Each structure stands twice: as C-alpha cells, then as structure tokens.
C-alpha cells in the first residue's frame, strides 16, 4: 500500500460500513492503537539545516533508517532533535520521499553521491519514480562505463606473473605495450602492403619483349613473383600460428572474423602448392588467387577507422537492406516497362526483362553507359522517365535516408530502452501489489501461528515468530479480513489458487451427499469461532483444548489449517462421512516442527443443521481432498470421538 | 502579407493544438479545471457540524489535501485512492457507489466538507445514523427502498474486490445467492424490496451486525 494514501486508511475503514449489513458473520476484532500518542513534530537537523516533519510521516516506511528505531542512534538529547552529518541537499529528496511517497532524482546531483545517501538512509534506489527513473538509469550506466574505461586503461600496466603465452597475446592485441610488439606490428603491416602490391603488379602488362607479345609481369617474372608470394605467405603463416598459440581461447579465436580472413588469405598459396599443373583444375586455381585480395582486410587490425566502418555497416545492415529492396522494386518495375516498350523494335538489345535490368540500373544511377539504348518512342519516353526518377530515387533520398536511418536507429535504441524500462516499471508495480497482498497473507499466517502458540502456551516460540507490524499495516489487514468475512471467501496467493483449481478439476463427481458438507465448507469457513482459552462459548459442550500430537510434516506454506473439533453427538451421520476425508493441506509453517493442534469446539450455528435456513443452495464446494496425498495418520488415529467434525478454520 | 501569415500560423497552431473550437470561434480554456481550488469552511464551523475534534479534523484535512491538492476529489482520484487498499481485486465499482454516497450535492466531486460529514456519521454517529448511511449507500437511485437489482450491484462490487485468487473459488452465482439470503433476512413483508424501516429493524435484531457497527468507534 502506498504510504501516500496512508492518511486515507481511516476513510477506507469507514467505507467498510457498506459490508456490515451484508455480512453473515461477525467481524474480526480491530487492532487497538496501543500507543495513543499524539502526533508530534520531530526535528531533523542535517548538517545545520533543520527539517521538520510529523512523526507519522516518517513512520510510513518502517524499513528505512528514519522510519525505524535506527534513528534513535542519532538523537541529540540537548537539542531534542535528530542530527545527521550528511548532505542537506540530497536529504531534501529523501524527506520528500516520505512526504509524497515518490522518490525523485535531482539532476544536478552526482550519481554516486546520491546512491550513497540512499544507502545511508536505507532506501533502495529502485523505487525512484517514473519521472526520474530513466535519467537515473542513464546516469548510472554512464558512470559504470566510465569506471570500466578506467579499469581498462589499467590493463596496459604490466601485470606480474604473466606467462609467456599471455605476454604474447597482449603483445598481439596491444602493439604499443612493448617494442618487440611494435616491431612485429609494423613488419606484418609492411608485408601485407607488399603482398597486395605484388598481386596488383602481377597483372600489369610488362612491356613486350622481342619474341613474345605483351604479357603481364606475373608471367614474365614468374620466379620473382613466386618468391615474393612465398615470403609473404611464410610471414602470414607464422603470424597466424603464433596468434593461434597465444590465444587464450583457441576455439574462439579460430571462429573470429580476423582469423578467418587470415586463413582465406594464405590458403590459395598452399592449395596451389599442392595442386599439380593440371589443365582442368588450373582454371579453378586461378579463381582461388582472387582470394589473395582478402589480405587487404588484414589491414583492419592496423586501422581503427576500418574497424569502425565495418561495424557501422554491420549495424546498419537492416536499413541498407531495406534501401536495396526498394531500389530493386523500382528496377523491376522499370525493366518490365522498358522490355515491353522495346519489344516491338527490331535489333533491340532488350531481349528479356533481366537483360533490361542492366539498362535500368545504369540509367537510374545516372551512369548511362550507352550500351543499351531504347529505340522506340515509347521506350524513349519511359527511358527518360526512368532516368528522371532515377535522379530522384537515388540522389535525393540517399542523404535523407542516411540521416533518417541515423535518427531512427537512435530512436529505436531509445524505444527499446523505454520498452525495457516499461517492463521493469510494470514489474515494479506488480511487485508492489503482490508485496502488499503477500504481506496480508503472511500476516494471516503469522497471526494464526501466534494464536496457536498462545493456546499451547509456548512463550518463546511466540516471541520468535511475532513480527512487529506497524499499526497502519495491522489496520489495513484488519480491513481486508473484514472483506473476507463479508464475502465468506479468503484471499489466497496465486500458487495456492492454481493448486485449488487443479484439485477441483480432479474431482470428477461432486457427490451429492456432501451437500450438507459443503454447507460445512462454506459456513465453516465463516462462522467457526476460535476459542480463546479463557472465554467460554455459548454452546460449548466439548472438552477444552486437548492437544493432538504433532504433525511432523515438511515445512510448507499454509493458507488454512485443518483443526479437529469435538463434535456434539447430535449431528447426523452424513457429516461424519465427509469428515474422514482429512486433508493435510494444513502443514504448519514453524521452526520447531513441534506444534500441537488444538481441538476447537464448534458452536452449532443454525445454518449447519440439515434444515438450516442460512445459505440455501450453496455452491457445491467442499474442501478438496488432496490428490494422492495420504491423510496424516497422526491426526486421525488420535481422535477418540467417532464423528469428528473437521472444519476448516480460516486464519484469525 | 505578413499579417495574413501570422493569422495563418496562429490558426495552424490552434488546429494542431486542438484547443480551438471551430464552431464557436473561441479558444477553449484548458486551464479552468486545474486552477479550481476549493477551500473548506473554517474549522470552527466544521467542528460544530461534525463530531470531530480539532485535532482529528486537522489530521483528516492533512491527509485529504495531500492526495488532492486542489481541495476536491473527483471520481477518478477517488477510485485510484481506494484501489490502493485492495491490491488483489477490482474496487472501482464499490468506490463508485461510495462516491455517490459521499457526494451529497451531486456535483461530481467530493469536497472536504462532504468527506468529513460522511465520516462523521460513520465514525461518530449513533448506530441508527450508521444504519441510515448504509441504507443510503445501498439505495442507488435514492428512492427509499432497495430492490434486488440494486443489492445485486452492490454485492457484485463487493465480491469484485476479492479478486480472482480466493479460496474457495468464486462462483458466478455467489453474489446472487448472497443477495437472496440478505433479502430473506431483511425483507419482512416479502414484497421484493427492503425499505428503510425493514432494514433498520432487521439490523437491530441481528447481533452480528450490531456488533460490527461498533467497530467504527475506534477507527480514528
């Protein structure tokens, strides 16, 4: 329950007047306000600045420093105030949290200082309100990244106790760590350049010699080029093997892009070595040499810019794909149109639609090679439309698209962020809600436990189990309890509810004889009274509480507890049929495991007799027998009286 | 030219704004609601008219003003506040009926006086006063008698507050049956409606109800 509405609790309790005439059972006793303390102003002196607030304002959050008794440690007797040696500016938001129930993050505040203040006052930052939460998270992330960057910089310092392998790996990854690494870095760079230049020059025609016609240099100076190639590949192979050796995770290294490029770059050479000068495969071999150009990508290890470009392309892949798709659409449309327009003319180069693609692309990108030209009038008209639209389609939107994509990309990131935060926000709201309802269920169990312990008189256990709930909480729980009584139903948590559903589904035939027992079920819930030791009941004709030996079950959650009652002998036999179906849904949540259940006398409210005038036509519910659980023998065997009435007693 | 452009841009902004009412040519003043501020009567007068002490009125007003700085509660806020107390179920219908009961002058908002008068009857009134107030709550159309339909609405709203996760599982006809039993108890002359006299009489005969009415003595 949000503390902001704590002040309206009296109203909510007053509003319960609408339930009273409707309820068929008496209401539970209201919690008393034991400390009839008048609300007082307390002074909080934070580094000289005095804040004042009502005591009840601070009591709203009993699990924080100011709301609990922890603040007594800071009480100053002489001035009758609480003194905190903390930042008064940050304290403003802390105090406002108590007042309004919402925690705000002031933007001028340093994130780590704010976190420290929250930690000091025992407030978890997750409850920052939605208005400030995004800002808070952003700043926090920034801060973390900054700290991380600091940590990374420290990596450059030489760590002691690094073995040879790790040193080598560091040398490869950060060349400026040692001179040796730098030398290696430059040497490999040089050889990559050499290799690329060699590949290029290989194909240049070297000038005619006397006897042969113009031939590329590669064929003229075969040996020289072969030696160069060998040398480069030698270096690359050695480098690759050394990296492979030094890599901390060899498998991961082998999967990385750079290593694949390395392999692809040197493979053609080896394949060429292995293959003989066979005519069939030499064609394929020549193709393989194309892959030598991939050596140029090895430069990306040397160039940061190249890496960034690659990353940008990768991240914009979807946008580029969409651009390509729209262009393809335009191309197909125009190619089709041009094909059908030029179909008529003879000696037309537009032999098919795919053939027209080339024309469309060349025209739209305003290249205009002129190898394919429309000859018919329709073709020329459409051709001009094509080239005009090409200008528009390509030249105009490209910068717009680029900036659009950049904007959309960032927006998307923000939308994702917001969506993720929305989920977090909804989760927080849900947690708060379930927390509130769970608090109620928990207090029910505790309350029931306390009463059991009260009955059996074990004082120490009771003290251990009692949790101090604030008056506000106990009043709120009393309100919910009244609602339960009015409607003759109980709150359960989700798992229990699903369990129940499962059990009721498993019952194939709701048998008729428990029509009265279902009376029992529903009326018993509502109208059974719990006996306090000292207060006698009006028609109590049963022996006082006599304990049944312990039910040593595993410690499990409890929503209601089955308690045996002594039955006045006048009841009909049909009831006893039901009663044998004990179900041990009630397993007691306790520490010692030595809880004794008490027999509780059941007054005979008029509705329980077969001709009851209470609820008639009750829903055919009965306490569902657990599927496949053996009834606890201990409870059954020790009952002496025959027709024991097992009544489900709701908590409290 | 310039003037025209300015008008044009003004009308554009108005259109975009949505605050321009084309029919009446007036700019709807959006600000009216938010600056409405209602101040309650002086504390002395309230003290005379209700049975609360000064301190109690102070505490009540502080809480009231905290949630509703403008001084009046509208139904939405009312429902929001009330729903915070019932996390598991849906309390909006019951809150609606409560709002109707508190809003005695039917102006769509509950001021602090309405609030405090209602509370005074419930928390400080005699049992008869309380029963009267409860009857007023149930009598949705304020015609002096409770019909089965009205009671069914009320009952459904109460059961709605329980939510889905209950034990035993909520059946669809539970509220109806509860209404039947209520009428059984209350409707003396079996004419299908419960009048105020029947109501008070039956309640006075019922121990449980009398006892639970006394719960309200110690709420504040």
Descriptive notes:
The complex is a heterodimer of chains A (652) and B (220). Chain A is built from 23 helices and seven strands. Chain A is mainly alpha-helical and 652 residues long. A four-stranded mixed sheet of chain A has the order 2-1-4-3. By secondary structure, chain B is mainly alpha-helical. Chain B has helices at 2-17, 32-35, 43-49, 54-67, 75-83, 92-102, 112-124, 127-138, 148-160, 174-186, 196-205, 207-213; strands spanning 20-21, 26-27, 72-74, 109-111, 145-147, 166-167, 193-195. In chain B, strand 1 (20-21) and strand 2 form a beta hairpin. At the A-B interface, helix 1, helix 17, helix 19, strand 5 and helix 20 of A face helix 4, helix 6, helix 7, helix 8 and helix 9 of B.
Please write out the topology.
The complex is a heterodimer of chains A (652) and B (220).
Chain A: H1 9-15, E1 41-46, E2 49-54, H2 55-58, E3 75-76, E4 81-84, H3 88-100, H4 111-120, H5 130-153, H6 164-173, H7 179-201, H8 217-220, H9 222-246, H10 250-255, H11 257-274, H12 279-290, H13 304-315, H14 317-342, H15 353-364, H16 377-395, H17 397-456, H18 459-465, H19 471-487, E5 490-491, H20 494-506, H21 514-527, E6 561-565, H22 573-579, H23 633-637, E7 645-649
Parallel strand pairs in A: 1-4
Antiparallel strand pairs in A: 1-2, 3-4, 6-7
Chain B: H1 2-17, E1 20-21, E2 26-27, H2 32-35, H3 43-49, H4 54-67, E3 72-74, H5 75-83, H6 92-102, E4 109-111, H7 112-124, H8 127-138, E5 145-147, H9 148-160, E6 166-167, H10 174-186, E7 193-195, H11 196-205, H12 207-213
Brief overview, please?
The complex is a heterodimer of chains A (652) and B (220). By secondary structure, chain A is mainly α. Chain A has helices at 9-15, 55-58, 88-100, 111-120, 130-153, 164-173, 179-201, 217-220, 222-246, 250-255, 257-274, 279-290, 304-315, 317-342, 353-364, 377-395, 397-456, 459-465, 471-487, 494-506, 514-527, 573-579, 633-637; strands at residues 41-46, 49-54, 75-76, 81-84, 490-491, 561-565, 645-649.
């Amino acid at each position: 329950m949000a503390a902001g509405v704590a002040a309206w609790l009296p109203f909510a309790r007053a509003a319960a007047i609408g339930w009273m005439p409707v309820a068929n059972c008496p209401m539970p006793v209201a919690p008393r306000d034991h400390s009839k303390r008048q609300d007082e102003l307390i002074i909080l002196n934070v580094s000289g600045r005095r804040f004042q607030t009502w005591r009840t304002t601070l009591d709203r959050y009993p699990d924080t420093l100011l709301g609990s008794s922890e603040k007594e440690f800071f009480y100053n007797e002489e001035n009758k105030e609480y003194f905190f040696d903390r930042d008064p500016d940050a304290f403003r938001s802390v105090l406002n949290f108590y007042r309004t129930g919402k925690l705000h993050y002031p933007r001028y505040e340093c994130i780590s200082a704010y976190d420290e203040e929250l930690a000091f006052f025992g407030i978890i930052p997750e409850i920052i309100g939605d208005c400030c939460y995004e800002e808070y998270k952003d700043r926090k992330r920034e801060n973390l990244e900054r700290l991380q960057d600091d940590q990374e910089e420290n990596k450059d310092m030489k760590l002691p106790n690094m073995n040879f392998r790790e040193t080598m790996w560091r040398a490869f990854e950060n060349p400026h760590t040692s001179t040796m690494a730098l030398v290696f870095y430059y040497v490999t760079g040089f050889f990559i350049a050499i290799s690329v230049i060699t590949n290029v020059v290989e194909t240049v025609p070297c000038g005619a010699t006397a006897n042969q016609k113009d031939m590329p240099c590669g064929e003229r100076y075969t040996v020289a080029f072969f030696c160069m190639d060998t040398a480069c590949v030698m270096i690359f192979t050695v480098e690759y093997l050394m990296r492979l050796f030094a890599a901390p995770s060899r498998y991961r290294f082998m999967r990385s892009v750079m290593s694949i490029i390395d392999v692809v770059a040197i493979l053609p050479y080896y394949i060429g070595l292995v293959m003989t000068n066979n005519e069939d495969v030499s064609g394929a071999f020549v193709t393989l040499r194309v892959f030598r150009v991939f050596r140029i990508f090895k430069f990306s290890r040397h160039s940061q810019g190249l890496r960034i470009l690659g990353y940008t392309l990768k991240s914009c892949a979807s946008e580029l794909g969409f651009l390509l798709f729209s262009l393809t659409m335009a191309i197909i449309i125009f190619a089709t149109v041009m094909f059908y327009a030029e179909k008529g003319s003879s000696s037309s180069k537009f032999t098919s639609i795919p053939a027209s693609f080339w024309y469309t692309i060349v025209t739209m990108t305003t290249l205009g090679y002129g190898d394919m030209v429309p000859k018919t009038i329709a073709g020329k008209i459409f051709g001009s439309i094509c080239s005009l639209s090409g200008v528009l389609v390509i030249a105009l939107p490209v910068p717009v698209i680029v900036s659009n994509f950049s904007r959309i990309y960032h927006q998307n990131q923000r939308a994702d962020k917001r969506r993720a935060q929305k989920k977090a926000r909804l989760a927080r709201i849900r947690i708060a809600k379930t927390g509130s309802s769970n608090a109620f269920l928990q207090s029910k169990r505790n309350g029931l436990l306390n009463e059991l312990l009260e009955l059996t008189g074990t004082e120490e256990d009771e003290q251990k189990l009692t949790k101090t709930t604030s008056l506000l909480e106990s009043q709120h729980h009393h309100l919910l309890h009244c609602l339960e009584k009015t409607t003759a139903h109980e709150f359960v948590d989700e798992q229990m509810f699903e369990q129940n559903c499962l059990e009721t589904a498993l019952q194939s035939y709701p048998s008729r004889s428990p029509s009265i027992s279902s009376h029992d079920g529903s009326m018993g819930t509502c109208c059974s009274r719990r006996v306090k030791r000292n207060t006698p009941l009006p028609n109590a004709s049963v022996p006082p509480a006599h304990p049944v030996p312990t039910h040593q079950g595993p410690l499990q959650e409890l929503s209601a507890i089955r308690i045996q009652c002594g039955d006045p002998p006048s009841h009909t036999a049909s009831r006893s049929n039901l009663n044998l179906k004990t179900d041990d849904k009630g397993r007691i949540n306790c520490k010692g495991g030595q809880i004794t259940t008490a027999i509780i006398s059941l007054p005979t409210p008029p509705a329980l007799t077969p001709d009851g005038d209470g609820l008639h036509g009750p829903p055919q519910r009965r306490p569902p027998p657990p599927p496949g659980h053996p009834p606890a023998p201990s409870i059954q065997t020790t009952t002496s009286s025959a027709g024991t009435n097992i009544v489900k007693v709701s908590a409290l | 030219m310039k003037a025209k452009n300015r008008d044009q841009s003004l009308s554009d902004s108005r259109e975009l704004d949505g605050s321009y009412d084309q029919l009446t040519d007036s700019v709807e003043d959006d600000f009216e609601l938010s600056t409405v501020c209602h101040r309650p009567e002086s504390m002395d007068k309230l003290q005379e008219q209700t049975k609360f002490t000064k301190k109690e009125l102070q505490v009540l007003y502080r809480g009231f003003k905290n949630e509703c700085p403008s001084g009046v509660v509208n139904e939405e806020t009312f429902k929001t506040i009330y729903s915070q107390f019932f996390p598991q179920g849906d309390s909006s219908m019951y809150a609606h009926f409560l709002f109707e009961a508190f809003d005695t002058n039917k102006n769509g908002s509950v001021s602090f006086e309405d609030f405090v008068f209602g509370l005074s009857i419930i928390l400080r009134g005699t049992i008869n006063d309380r029963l009267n107030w409860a009857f007023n709550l149930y009598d949705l159309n304020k015609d002096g008698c409770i019909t089965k339909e009205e009671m069914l609405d009320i009952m459904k709203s109460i059961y709605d507050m329980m939510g889905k996760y209950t034990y035993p599982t909520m059946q669809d006809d539970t509220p109806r049956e509860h209404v039947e039993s209520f009428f059984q108890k209350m409707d003396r002359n079996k004419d299908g409606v419960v009048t105020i006299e029947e109501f008070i009489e039956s309640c006075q005969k019922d121990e449980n109800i009398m006892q639970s009415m006394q719960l309200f003595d110690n709420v504040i």
